[in-house]
Amino acid sequence: MFQDFKQAGDRPVVIQVKEYMKRLIIKGALQADQKLPSTRELSVLLKVSRNTVIAAYEGLEDDGFTYAIPGKGSYVAMVGHPDAEQGGADSSAAWHLDWKAKMNEYAQSAVELDLMKQGIRAGKGTISFTSIAPDERLFDLGDVRRAFMDRMAIEGQVLLNYGYAKGYKPLIDYLMRYMENKGVDPSGKEMLITSGFTEGFDLVLSALRPLTRRGSALCENPTHHTAIKNLKLHRFEITGIPMERDGINVEQLEAVLQKSNRFDLAYLTPSYHNPTGIVMSPAKRSAVIQLMRHYQIPVIEDGFNEELRYSGAHVSPLIATAGRGNGVIYIGSFSKVLFPGLRVGWVLGDRALIDHLESMKRARTIHTSTIDQSILYQYLINGNFDKYVKKARLEYKRKYELTKACCEAHLPEAQLSGDGGLHLFLTFPSVVDTQRLLEACTDQGVIFTPGDKFFVQEGEGTNTLRLGFSRVTDENIERGIQIISEQVRSVFQAGPLGMGEDEI
Amino acid sequence: MFQDFKQAGDRPVVIQVKEYMKRLIIKGALQADQKLPSTRELSVLLKVSRNTVIAAYEGLEDDGFTYAIPGKGSYVAMVGHPDAEQGGADSSAAWHLDWKAKMNEYAQSAVELDLMKQGIRAGKGTISFTSIAPDERLFDLGDVRRAFMDRMAIEGQVLLNYGYAKGYKPLIDYLMRYMENKGVDPSGKEMLITSGFTEGFDLVLSALRPLTRRGSALCENPTHHTAIKNLKLHRFEITGIPMERDGINVEQLEAVLQKSNRFDLAYLTPSYHNPTGIVMSPAKRSAVIQLMRHYQIPVIEDGFNEELRYSGAHVSPLIATAGRGNGVIYIGSFSKVLFPGLRVGWVLGDRALIDHLESMKRARTIHTSTIDQSILYQYLINGNFDKYVKKARLEYKRKYELTKACCEAHLPEAQLSGDGGLHLFLTFPSVVDTQRLLEACTDQGVIFTPGDKFFVQEGEGTNTLRLGFSRVTDENIERGIQIISEQVRSVFQAGPLGMGEDEI
């Protein structure tokens, strides 16, 4: 015994010795009421200082693994679990439940719809256009550190104890003002802080989903694949409305609404729509609000990337267009602009709705990390956000234009869309199957996101793809797009329809 | 115009000027294509430096609210939303949805079951025994700051970008070892990091709840009121098994199981059970595991307060007792011991189960705050945890003994239970209605948690209460318990049954 002790570099030795002894006791290698080696003996056996052993023995006693008899030494206080090691026939080791069989439909579809468990993993050196997460090299760590230290200095311990389900009050006040500056009329509305956009969206769907029948939802087509996933997960049937250069096709929206008015909600992303990057025109925003109001359909507005505008005038969100109307739920987040690692988002909507969401939030996660909320708050009031967004906008705009230029040069047959944000959306002639294209490109060390998963119906958008450029270097943007271009030609030139001059 | 600008101390003036101008544009007070005052004019009007105005104008242009004509000045780029202000008849302001009516049963019960929306609020100067949150004065802020800085220095920006749904790998590895040191056999098991115990519990219930019928759950009676809330929220019928001094009544448990074996799961808190503070004996732990295994009932083990042991030998958790068996799901958290503000907990269980929970977690919140996880991780490997727990244990043990002594002196008629943790549980003669007692005490500036809400059936435990002492000063513990004692006498002495000498 005591031969197999090995020191690891990462933790204090006292703790390592303590844990080592705990194992021996738990395994039953040291029996109950057995005397432990003297501290001097063990220090020799484990090749550690005697003080280390003394401290470790104290810890073992504190944790109830041993007891000391003054003048005699330390003794094992508990009976080990040989089970945990051998697991004999009559031991609980035999207990085996089939968990997969116990998972309900919701849990099962969560796995089936989990894109992360399907997507192609990027190997080393692969040029990956799949991410639309911000480029962390733009993060101003110093400002974040300062924000943390400033806030800790002001509030100290309070930040580490329980907060409120609704959110960190100073942040709520700040974000309410922030939304007012986008033109939102706050009367009758309240805000709930969530762990990012996703939690906000999941809470809203959980509250609005019909429990006795499948729900029905309207959305732009294509749209954010995570939104499609969560709508399906909550058993909504989805009706997609095609996109135009200036946003959702309002005539078709109206036609659909005239046909059936059994929609429980609409999910819309008016600014820098994901994946097309299109910004809905002010005229369409009013038209959409008028329609939704007429048919009394609650609107969930995704504030996605609103901050990453590269050109054109500011456009107020739908919730601002609705004025005092309470039909729009706005879900915001800085994740795509600022720090996704700080899981902070917000839901702005009618007071009665927020009251319900608050209780649901409390039952699910109690509250969002106070550290995250307070760092974000201090970062904002320190004026770092404006400074950062200015910098980020410049850099992303440059990359956006580079990506656009490369696509125009090397992929002339593809239709581009995207007025801002961290990605471009490409539509190829129908002959180009982007899943097949992806397979070919993967072999050449380039990956992207095939567009079909952004479409509501199976088999739609098989000729589209999304290029996320935020985390790709300039030279890789060029190389990657060239490689995609080569593959388009080698794989589809001889395709059934080929590509006529007209198309190229 | 420009008369109503007021500087606030809390943010950079540039931002305040920018926001002020945005409001005017959005309100339509400044019309599209209208020329803004020159920077010199505005600096005089708003009484701020000209450079401030110049910077603010740049910001307005960046955000698309204005455009500049070189040599001429800045002009308004967008049309405001007078709607948002007045809301005329034909505006969307008329749009009013009845959100309360749109909330489904789940959202409604979330509010109905939300204790925070019922509990008595403590006024200033009130002695409150309702909290069992840790005493933040024990928090070692310096160590937390260091943990943050250390981790930022090591990983930097990465901490601020997206993490993994499963959790922060170094923390998972650490906690797996931590659980092994409690005697857990890790084979076939995996871990998911959650935003505290509550998210873990909610995820597990969401995955196991039957969707076509009401579920049925077993638990100790009384038990953690939040657990009761979440079980009800997920439409479980709850069967409570009475407690004994050494834990759940195993005979009754067996009797119930023999009668009906249609239980979907059992929820158990073997260590420092909430609210009774009882620790289940090793013998009972084996017996419970044998029973659950025989009847094939999944066990959710709440690791609540396991670290706050004040006396007696270490007792391994149920998941350790189960050896290689996969029937126990362990949900852990340091919230009650360490920092509740850091929303970090963990679910340890069968690989197939964790795989499903991971996808559910991804669909709901993407992942737990990386900052929270990495601060906790660094704090742990810096060896601060052992140091802190040692300190906290001493302090809470002292308070625990003081509270116990005061209860024995002033409330001799009450039965005490609790071997550790941050609270004591009192059971009075049946004549004492603790809701009525609370009303009387509230008038005297003392509040506590009536015990009935910890019981499964309406009307049970009306003569019980929970005293949380972690955040009450020594003198207030004494004063508070004296006041409770006085009220017990003045309110119930002359009660229907009164209290015979024997009872006092």
TrEMBL record, chains A, B:
Pfam family, one: Aminotran_1_2
Residues of the signal peptide: none
One example GO MF annotation: DNA-binding transcription factor activity
HTH gntR-type domain residues: 11-79
Keyword terms: Aminotransferase, DNA-binding, Pyridoxal phosphate, Transcription, Transcription regulation, Transferase
Names of required cofactors: pyridoxal 5'-phosphate
SUPFAM superfamilies in UniProt: PLP-dependent transferases, Winged helix' DNA-binding domain
CDD domains membership: AAT_like, WHTH_GntR
Family listed: In the C-terminal section; belongs to the class-I pyridoxal-phosphate-dependent aminotransferase family.
Name the UniProt record assigns to this protein: PLP-dependent aminotransferase family protein
UniProt organism field: Paenibacillus oceani
